[in-house]
Amino acid sequence: MRKLCMVFVLLLSLALILTSGCTEGPEASASLDKPIVAVSILPQAEFVEKIAGDNVKVLVMVPAGADPHTYEITSGQLRDLSRAQMYVKVGSGLDFERVWMDRLIAQNPDMLIVDSSNGVTFRTMEAHSHDDEEYAEEHDSEGSYEEHGAEEHNESLTKDPHIWTSPKQAKIMVNNTYAGLVEIDPDNQELYMQNRDAYLAELDAVDATIRETLAGKEGSSFIVYHPSWGYFAETYGLNEIAVEIEGKEPSAKDMQSLIDTAKEKDVRVIFVQPGFSTTSTKAIAAEINAEVVSIDPLAKDYIDNLAKVTAAFEKGLA
Ligand SMILES: [Zn+2]
């Protein structure tokens, strides 16, 4: 009965708002005027919300379950973005941002652009490219690999974009996000600073827990399909070995070399993440008798997820 009354009151006030036109109350317009803060990936949404709470509305460009290397933005998202006051980019060379950032800025040239990676020490990871199709074909057959050698088998280093998977880098991202929020909403600086400090303390606590949990595992290796955990590995002294190379499935030769490395390094776990292929992963796992475990580098509940991930590492590392 009480619920019904509430609904009635709500409908009545809605009707009043609709009929009163431009004389709507200050409360209604305040909630409509909340600054919109856009971010690329879900963990960044937690960063913004932990600092600004309900004072802003967060717009996440790469939705849950989508792949930030290939995601294509919708026209609805572009419309929403045109009302954003600020865009916090990851800033580390994430494919989504490399492909879309110019268009996003063109859509809304007035929004403040914050680079959350400002101050991060980037790690490099192996980029691995093959000169041409012909080589790729021959790559699988034994002898030809030797013949062609290094000239056509290019290995180079590229910047690892997955900075957020280490709480150490996340703290830098949070500080940059805070600076941007204060710029668009200086009246709340005091509150945002308190919130930021509380969240940084949470990140320190989870970092301490991870160190404690993984103590003694330094030097351990793990295999991961898509190389999202390089910064996490670096922070905690682990060794990440990726199955996927430059976004592609490994060749038979690559698979064999992975299997050899895995045996040599006593790898017991292969991590996969939602949305990525597991065919080659399963084959390698069967070969080395490792467990395939799913961990999500893009979960929105960043700190809780890190705890889950750490438990998976603890269980899976030799
Ligand atoms: Zn990635």
Layout of secondary structure:
Elements: H1 2-20, H2 26-32, E1 36-39, H3 42-52, E2 57-60, H4 75-81, E3 86-89, H5 95-107, E4 112-115, E5 124-130, H6 133-139, H7 144-152, E6 153-159, H8 167-184, H9 189-213, E7 221-224, H10 230-235, E8 239-242, H11 252-264, E9 269-272, H12 279-288, E10 291-294, H13 302-316
Parallel strand pairs: 1-2, 1-3, 3-4, 7-8, 7-9, 9-10
Antiparallel strand pairs: 5-6
- What does the average pLDDT come to? 85
Which strand order do you get reading across the main beta sheet? 2-1-3-4
- Give unreliable regions as ranges: 14-30, 128-153
User: What is the CATH topology assignment of the largest domain?
Assistant: Rossmann fold
Give the overall silhouette: globular
Overall structural domain count? 2
Please give the alpha-carbon distance between the first and last residues.
Answer: 60 Å
How does this structure look, described?
This protein is an alpha/beta fold. 50% of the residues lie in helices and 14% in strands. It contains 13 helices and 10 strands. It has a 4-stranded parallel β-sheet with strand order 2-1-3-4, with helices on both faces. A 4-stranded parallel β-sheet has the order 8-7-9-10, sandwiched between helices. The protein has a two-stranded antiparallel sheet with strand order 5-6. Helix 9 (189-213) packs parallel to helix 13 (302-316) and helix 11 crosses helix 12. It is globular. The structure holds zinc ion. Zinc ion (ZN) is lined by residues 69, 162, 226, 228.
